[in-house]
């Protein structure tokens, strides 16, 4: 169970902390003086992703009834995540400077923006289904693994998106130099591959 929990946490954290549309908006919120709104955005995005994981788990019950489909889904998820790891490792460098106008939304508006942005993020749905196929379907006690993965996903998303919000300005300066940003992307890609490999042994 400890190995499973570690693999889940690694997978979920990497999925939430790597650059993407949700995190770009988190940086903008973090650059604002309205920290309450920034945290509301993080909570909205995190709860929305957890709901996506929950829905993917509920809709994947058919995988349990057909081992061939379950195995195909597991390897399909591993293939997508391996491709995602490659994309992360070779991602073009981006401008992380907060040159956009500070976000001045109310906490409620920021919460709704986080939830809607995450729910419309295609990567969130694909990664959630991949995670269910990798970490839940193969387990003997699927229900326990399912709720554990939902909880881990919520905490990891809060931490991952929250890091971008809280450290928006600092992160943009620290990752400004191209070598640092490139090393960060490569490290995230390798960790994601290790997370996948640990579940396919």
UniProtKB/TrEMBL annotation:
<feature type="transmembrane region" description="Helical">
    <location>
        <begin position="124"/>
        <end position="140"/>
    </location>
</feature>
<dbReference type="Pfam" id="PF01810">
    <property type="entry name" value="LysE"/>
</dbReference>
<dbReference type="InterPro" id="IPR001123">
    <property type="entry name" value="LeuE-type"/>
</dbReference>
<dbReference type="GO" id="GO:0015171">
    <property type="term" value="F:amino acid transmembrane transporter activity"/>
</dbReference>
<keyword id="KW-0472">Membrane</keyword>
<keyword id="KW-0812">Transmembrane</keyword>
<feature type="transmembrane region" description="Helical">
    <location>
        <begin position="146"/>
        <end position="171"/>
    </location>
</feature>
<keyword id="KW-1003">Cell membrane</keyword>
<feature type="transmembrane region" description="Helical">
    <location>
        <begin position="36"/>
        <end position="56"/>
    </location>
</feature>
<protein>
    <submittedName>
        <fullName>Threonine/homoserine/homoserine lactone efflux protein</fullName>
    </submittedName>
</protein>
<feature type="transmembrane region" description="Helical">
    <location>
        <begin position="183"/>
        <end position="200"/>
    </location>
</feature>
<keyword id="KW-1133">Transmembrane helix</keyword>
<dbReference type="GO" id="GO:0005886">
    <property type="term" value="C:plasma membrane"/>
</dbReference>
<dbReference type="GO" id="GO:0033228">
    <property type="term" value="P:cysteine export across plasma membrane"/>
</dbReference>
